[in-house]
């Protein structure tokens, strides 16, 4: 066997293989014997026909059918001899064979890159620390009141704590309705500062059943143009915000907290925990980005495509029927996300390299530490969690 390796990149290679007739013959003989057991010839029991007769009648067909297996045999031999680390499926191409002659074929193969870890200690990364303010706590308390509010239908709005349901008919410059420009039953919370101020002001005293002419300026793309609208009030509801009293606090905390000061402290702690977690995620991303940045290397397309397959599968999973939307352009989607998938492939390979070089392994203390925290959050016995963690590849990946 002769092999010529044409390396298209550090991870993409084309193997040009030539196998002489004398090396092919043992493979053909094995193929004849295997086929003989299945062939039936007139006058002979199945599998008992003379081999010479089988070769004469079916020899070329058997030889050609065995070429894929022969190519695979030599591919594995080359991988072992050259100490390749293939990834993905090899592609057999340009197979040339004439009975009695040599076999020539090309195999395209991708291999894992050789990575030399750079010094990782001392890499500069930014850690953004967020300290929760009193204003944030007050904002969260207000949000809690609002999600626990109730609505009472009334005739007219008397302050901002009202929800007004309206139909909007756009008007032309003559005050006539524009056909096809009608919005049915939208709700406007008068205290919501994200709503257009002209609409909130125009409806501040809205009365059920009445119409109001309001000129407002919505943003349409990059343009902001005034629109004349006739607002028909369908319903007015009073927003009843609960007081932050002992009864309310005990209700939403399931009797765990009763005083406002303790509740405020809990809200502060929850917010700070949220920001601390966000800080750590951001820091981990910054570290990963920096590690990838200082290690420029090629990655196999098959690995990149694997991450793209995962993104496409995520899109399917979120769709009704678990199928891609009819107008989904998968090719464009893959192209748009290629840079991200290349990054993911690089980080995956670097993580594995770091694990191997530092000999990172999960110890019982790792499971114990995670279970200690999580068992208190979800009220499951620590030992049960540990048993689950040890059998969860996702948890093991997270710990590593």
Short description:
The chain has 400 residues and is an alpha+beta fold. It contains 13 helices and eleven strands.
Give the N-terminus to C-terminus distance in angstroms: 44 Å
Structural class: alpha+beta
User: What letter string, H or E per element, gives the SSE order?
Assistant: EEHHHEEHEEEHEEEEHHHHHHHH
Q: What profile does the largest beta sheet have? A: 5 strands, antiparallel
Low-confidence segments, given as residue ranges, are none
Give average pLDDT, whole number.
92
Large-scale geometry: elongated
In percent terms, what proportion of residues is strand? 15-25%
Tally the helices: what do you get? 13
Strand runs, count: 11
| Rounded Rg | 35 Å
Helix content: 40-55%
Write the layout of secondary structure elements.
Layout: E1 2-7, E2 12-19, H1 21-36, H2 51-65, H3 67-82, E3 86-97, E4 103-111, H4 134-147, E5 150-154, E6 162-171, E7 177-189, H5 197-202, E8 211-216, E9 219-220, E10 223-224, E11 227-240, H6 246-252, H7 260-293, H8 301-317, H9 330-336, H10 338-358, H11 364-378, H12 382-390, H13 393-399
Antiparallel strand pairs: 1-2, 2-4, 3-4, 5-11, 6-7, 6-11, 8-11, 9-10
Helix pairs in contact: 1-2, 4-7, 7-10, 8-10, 11-12
